[in-house]
Structures are given as structure tokens and as C-alpha cells.
Amino acid sequence: MVAYGSPLYVYSRSDVERNWLEFDQAFGSHPHLVCYAVKANSNIAVLNTLAKIGAGFDIVSQGELERVLVAGGQGNRCVFSGVAKTAKEIKRALEVGVRCFNVESASELDRIESVAKSLNTQAPISIRVNPNVDAKTHPYISTGLKENKFGVDIDDAINLYQRAQNSEYLNIQGLDCHIGSQITEVSPFLDALDKVLELIDQLNKNGIKISQLDLGGGIGIVYDDEQTIDIQAYIDAIISKVGKIEIILEPGRSIVGNAGIFVTKVEFIKQNSEHSFAIIDGAMNDLLRPSFYNAYHQVLPVNENSNGIQASWDLVGPICETGDFLAKDRALSLSQGDYLAVMSAGAYGFTMSSNYNSRPRVAEVMVSGDQHYLVRERETIQDLFNKEHMIND
Ligand SMILES: *Cc1c(COP(=O)(O)O)cnc(C)c1O
Q: Residue 370 gets which letter from DSSP?
């Protein structure tokens, strides 16, 4: 902290590796590709760590694609998800030989076809179907219900596959679904799997061959005391149901979530008759999940402070919003100047950060063995308005 300043994200390289390898090895000899969902944490040191051990990547924008390429990842190990791919993004993805587009609507299929035609090539596609299952997670991160914007209604998918089958510019790879995030029970995944396997049967009967099945990400992690999914058991269950079909998974949170912490410093202590506030230097712009999803993160003192004030603290940031808190009601012994570790902050932490209140984005550090490396510099004040222009009149 002293070296890098505060607040700060810190990631463990070996945890990232171990988490990805757990998925990869659980498949044994069954054909598979574990595509890390870049949006969870897109730092190029994280991507490079994963590229080196053979990961694929799930991307949702050209920005993420370019990050993967810069970090040593390969286009042909990328699957391209997202509801609104632009023509420019599709063109670039085709040029770098992306492995598959996960198509989210009929109009998107048209757009991909026309870009492929303009390049006189074939676009590899899967259709993302919405299996209409309840992922039993926070409504903002539930994506597999009819009311969600994602994917193609499972009943409409056959028509779309037939359209793709008849196009000389589209090449059907498989089928895709992703039902949500931070899912802590295996049953919604297996319900979705049963539904898509039925669809694959119907497609086969219609002469449409599905050789790859992408089951998305969404495996929950332990933030507090949740019981979550046993990855080996989940993958065993998949393999027992799918026959020889190649499986793609797109885990994000479960690769990086518990591989990172957010470090913040107590600036001031403020107690009144009702509340004990520790005003910290980290805020909702740095780590949005508590404000946005009411998410829980464990908070630990970096050094035990036996001389601090023991109380049940609300940890609030400097931002001018009542919703600016990282944790509430935490029993801790605190003094001004203490450092705190906000745990399980490696996923959807830095990537969801912003410059709100004109706060420079924080630094990111990666620990590897007994070494530590600055993997993103703290933004400067100048960075905040570097690209802005006044009207000169
Ligand atoms: C967000 C997302 C993922 C990753 O979800 P996690 O919960 O982080 O594993 C995978 N696939 C798609 C299509 C996504 O939108």
C-alpha cells in the first residue's frame, strides 16, 4: 500500500490460474474450451496470465477483443457475446478469425451475414437461446427469463437456425445459452441444459448439426457464507447429459472474484448517537457492487488494530451519494489511517469503476509468487480531462 498508494486493487496470479485450471481439468478428456468472460476483469495482466495457460475468452466488445489480442490471446479462441454487436466489431472479429459469434436476435443474424458477405467469408455462429428458467439470483444479473433482453426465445430458435442453414455466409457451430450470474445452485443450469438438449434434438431432426454447446458462465462464488456450486460435480453432470458434443463454458466471476481484493484506508471516523461511520478513501465509483446490487463483501483489517474503537461500522466513501457505501454494520476495531481489505473484489470491481465525482481510477497490482507488480497505473488528475475541449469563442 505504501508503495502503490490507496485505494488499490490487488490480484493473485496463482489464484487466477488455479481457478481456470479447476474448470479446464474437470472436463478430463471431454472436448471443451473454458472461455474466461473478460468483462469480469479485463486487465491485460489477468488476460495474459490466462492466455499463457491456454484459456479461451468470452468477449462482448471490440475493446475486449483488442485487450485479449494485446495480452497474447488468440482470435480463434474467442467467442463473441453481447446483444448489440456493431458492423465494425463484427468485421474486426471476422478478420481475426473469431471462433464463434453468439447471436442474440434475428436482426443481429442479418447484420453478421451482411458483414460476412461484404468480406466474402463465412461467419461462424451459435444462436443464444433463452431457455426461460429462473436462475434464482439478483434480478439485475438474471438473464435467462422471457422478460430479459438476452437471447432468442427458445420457440423461435428453429426458424432462425433454418435461416442460418440456408445462408452461404453463415456457418452454424452450435448453440449458446447463459442464464445469469452468481448462481449458487446447480439446478437452474441443469434445467436450462435439458431444455437446450431438447432443442438440439429437434434441430438434428431438421438436418441442422450442432457440434458445440456453450453453457455460459454464472457460477456463483462465496462472498459471505453461501453454499455454492461444486464445479467438478456440475461439469460431471453436463458431461453425463451431452454425449459427444464439445462444451464451452464462459466463467468470469468464478475465475477472478476471489482472486482479488480492494484495499482502502480509513480517512475519518465519525460517530453519532445512532451510527458509527468509517469514512474511507474508496467509494462506489471504485467498487460499485455494494451500491448497485446491494452486494455483500467481507471486510478484514489489513493489520489487526487492538487499540482502535470497537463498534459496528458503516464503511462509507467520499462521494456525494447516500448510496455510497462499501459495507454496513461491520464489527471492527478501527482507527483513522487503518487499511481495510474488501474481499472477493476481483470480479466486476475495477471493470465497473468510473470517474464519478472526478475521482481518478485506482491502481491495480498483481502478486506473483513473492513478487508484486503494478499492472495498471493510478490515473492522474490530468487524465480526467485530457480528452475534453472547451469551445473557444
Ligand atoms: C457476464 C457473462 C458471463 C460471465 O458471467 P459470470 O457470472 O461472471 O461467470 C458469461 N457469458 C455471458 C454471455 C455473460 O454475459
A: T
Q: Which atom of ligand 1 is nearest to the CA of 40?
A: 8
* Atom number in ligand 1 closest to CA 181: 7
Q: What is the pTM of this model?
A: 0.96
**Average pLDDT of the segment spanning 18-43:** 98
Whole-number Å distance, alpha carbon 189 to ligand 1 midpoint, is 13
Is-catalytic flag, 78? no
- 89-96: average pLDDT: 98
| Rounded-to-integer distance, Cα 343 and Cα 104, Å | 34
CB 254 less than 6 A from any atom of ligand 1? yes
Q: Inform me whether the pLDDT recorded for 360 exceeds 70.
A: yes
All domains of the chain in start order, with CATH:
31-251 (3.20.20.10), 258-385 (2.40.37.10)
Q: Which residues of 106-143 are buried (b: 16+ CB within 10 A; e: fewer)?
A: eebbebbbebbeeeeeebbbbbbbbbbbebebeeebbb
Write the pLDDT tens digit of every residue in 154-171.
888 999 999 999 999 999
Query: How many angstroms does the Cα of residue 69 sit away from the middle of ligand 1?
Result: 20
Q: State whether the beta carbon of 82 lies less than 6 angstroms from ligand 1.
A: no
